[in-house]
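Re: duplicated header lines in exported structure tokens

Our pipeline writes sequence and tokens for each protein into one text file. With two proteins the header for the second block appears twice in some exports. Here is an export where it did not happen, for reference. First protein block:
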Amino acid sequence: MKQWIQIALCLLVMPLASTAQTQEAVLHCISVNASGSATLTWTAPTDTCSGFDRYDVYGAAAQTGPYSLLAQINDPVQLSYTDGGANAQNGSRFYYVQTVSACGSFLSDTLSSMYLKLSNTGGSIAGLSWNEVRVPLPVTAVLPYRIYREYPPGNWMLVGTSSSPSFKDTISICNAQVNYRVELSDNSGCISVSSVDGDVFKDVSSPSIRQLDSVSVDTLTGNPILGWIGSTEKDAAGYLIYQFKDGYWQPVDTIWSADSTFYMLNDTTSGSTRFRIAAFDSCFNVSPFGDEHRTMYLSATYDPCARTALLEWNPYISWKDSVSRYDLYVMADGGAASFLASVTGTQYLDTGLTAYSNYCYLVRAVSGTGTKTSTSNKACVTANSPLQPMFGYVTTASVNGSQVDVRFYVDTAASVQAYRVLRSDSPGGTYTTVATLPVTTSPLMTYSDADVDVASERYAYKLEVIDSCGMSALTSSNYGYPILCSVVSDYNFTNMVSWTAYEDWPSGVVTYGIYRSDAFNVIPVLVATVAGGTYSYADDVSALYTGDGAFCYTIVAQPAAGYPWPVADSSMSNTVCAYQLPRLFIPNAFTPNNDQVNDVFSPVSIFIDPLEYSFIALNRWGFVVYETDDPKAGWDGTYKGHDQPVGVYVYYVRIKTVDGRAFEKRGTFNLIR
């Protein structure tokens, strides 16, 4: 079946081979149906790299999203989709189609349904406006817009066209409902249809303005409650409730009784909500708006450090006799409301709260004459205290070059404001703050202390935790006291390395590793490991006599098992260097008889790294029989291939090292056969 579909698609695409290939579906039309659903129509991509997967249809109530996946369509020839939950009669809905194929994933343009708004000023002009499906319009859209009017019910008639998203229709109807819709054709063959909007048009005067008495908030549901004085006009039919939303006044409900004087809106929007009321008569003529009234929005901000609740609310406005006072009430731990205080401002600080108790507050405005009141929403706080840290450890204090790296393990679940790094000259000394570290999400923290002399001094480090109230909540239970290392060389080819103990891992030190760098190992290598509690090591370097005599050491401590942090952390000492004295040995005789024993005469350098080298051998008449600048070469007792006679010879050696030192030596030696 899949192969048949691919063949069919290829046959469909072949006549379009000369046109541009597209890898995404092209969304052309959105039609709003009578139910409020929205039907999308698109054309298929012309290039799916022989591997169509699906169409993903996304929708949102706002252009900026968030967008939700509405459908996944696996049939490549299904080129439409109806969003049954669009509710597009109540606002624009935004859509795009994602094509998933062997080529990849490709998005169509985002189109919106046309949301039609009708303006009826009470005369004979119907003002229509709507949003475009996209700005600018798709290139396949065919202007002008066509405007249809429904009157009488069920009879839709084209009444005009417009090249812009607005239109005015002049009608002559005394008292009837008139509905409108807008259509926009597309070159692909589909049509975008707007939502339907309409109104009753009649030619009678509007009723008189009605005023809200007060607006409050129901403390149980959080819904706004509106009250007003009812209309006494004979043709009064009801009221329209308006709410200021999204930057303009929107009707949110209709009261179909002129005798009604009370209304509760199902809306728990956070914040102060603005309302107005308008009356309408039996011919549905609507009065101008009454004055704006706003609910009081009460907020309660708890200060866990001071254990207080700051109550703030917006002033109540629009009473002709103003506000005489605000009465505050409190409910502790679910109990009954009790009077707290009366104030004339819009702020109050409730002090002395009991830790871990729950407090709910409300404020009631009282008019100047005392005949009207307005109640705010209920605002609640829990008198929590800052969550204190359970631990804080110094995992290591380690020398890194000329600085000390100190690492910490902290409790990230605590309410913490900052961390202070403390330093002292000794574990039992006076600690001072050397740095303040910000809070991070990681439990592992590092501070590098550069203001130190690691070659000759030791420093003890601790960590102080500052809670969210700025108070010291905890000081680390251990400290970090890095290793101080020293080394002395002797004439017997031995370097004596010694060091201080690392302190203060809770589990102690299990081993110390001795690392050495020299002429043969630029990067330090481990030469020995000793048990914790051992603080010296004699390093025999006689086998390294061909080097320059410089040896540098670093000690690395490892913690014993049982440390309370998740990952083991070592500690490095400072690096110290020793220098073996350079020496030059000259043999007094050699036997070049090819027995592989003492056949070559050559000076032997100990712990010398030569930059310049010269060795000359002379016979007893002062004639040069051998000369070389290669420290590894020697004389085999011949001159130009001829054995030289036994006897006494003279040598001369001159060496200049890489560090600028010079060595010279003269003497005699015997050639023996």
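Second protein block, exported in the same file:
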Amino acid sequence: MRLELENFKGVRKGSINIENLNILVGGNNSGKTTILESLFIAPNPLRDVLREPAISILKSLHSTLESEAYTFIFHNYTGKLARISCSNGFKLEIKFQRIGDDIEVYMIENNDAYFVGTLRAWGSEERGFLGLAQVTEDGSLKRRGQYIESVSVGSFISKMIGETIYFHPLLVRKVWEYFNYHWIEFRNLGLLSKIAGRISEGVAGDYDDLLLEPFIDGRRTILMRTRDGRGIRLGDMGSGVQTLITLMLLYEFIKPKMLLIDDIESHMNPSLLIHVTSWFGGVLKDGAKLVISTHSLEAAKFIAGSLEDYAPKITLITLRNGILNSKNLTVEEVEELEKAGIDVRMSESILL
């Protein structure tokens, strides 16, 4: 699948090929997170994810002090039109069009165009509608047509790309709040004992269940139960274990078509990285695409080498003057460059 960006966040223009497994590497501010975020909102920026609009989740990640403005969508905060396009025998396009203090959101699926809702450029509000509004594409995409009341904005997911889930370590506690509302579903699907047992294979400790129980003053908390009946709060376990449990439970419940993971090696020791890589094999076997970002070249090589049956690509990303470039490399190509004394993360000018 081809992903193209125009005036979206730090990217003025650029594109990348999304394979079954992409491992994004590059320097800081090279566009890795922008790629993941664009894929996350591509199925519909105003669909409900974690009990709020997808674009609102990104807004919370980008908030600084009291500023939660949606202007982060536009390149240099000043653009009037931002686009996200996905194509692979189909054409899906998301357009953010700024008109005064409003940002109007449109989706185009092949020849069908829809008005999705409105964001406030300098505020934190978003407004979807009960139904999508079909419009006529005329360049500026003026609002026209009737609402399709049988298709709610919050539940609409483009079938061209399917559901995508974005996981960032800073979202862990927001995901826990989401779990709070779906715990009985997790229990009845058998996910809690399954994931507790899976975690026991990769960490010190023998766990058989995850529990949602009162802790202090009747307030609920998530506990990992040991086989001898003790409970340990999830928040008291190591950050890597917290991340892995949260990621696994989120994926197994939603089963997205694409899993997007930012900073995969964060807080993970080699043992946990081996464990999560084994789990990735199951994700790919499910037929989902996997796009991961990392600062660790060793982590990238290990994941790609362990999952070679899925034709992984180590994708070098660079961003210069707003232009996004990418180059897919195999593990063998990365290792050959290393033998020549070249670190691909520091050698964009040679490779791109």
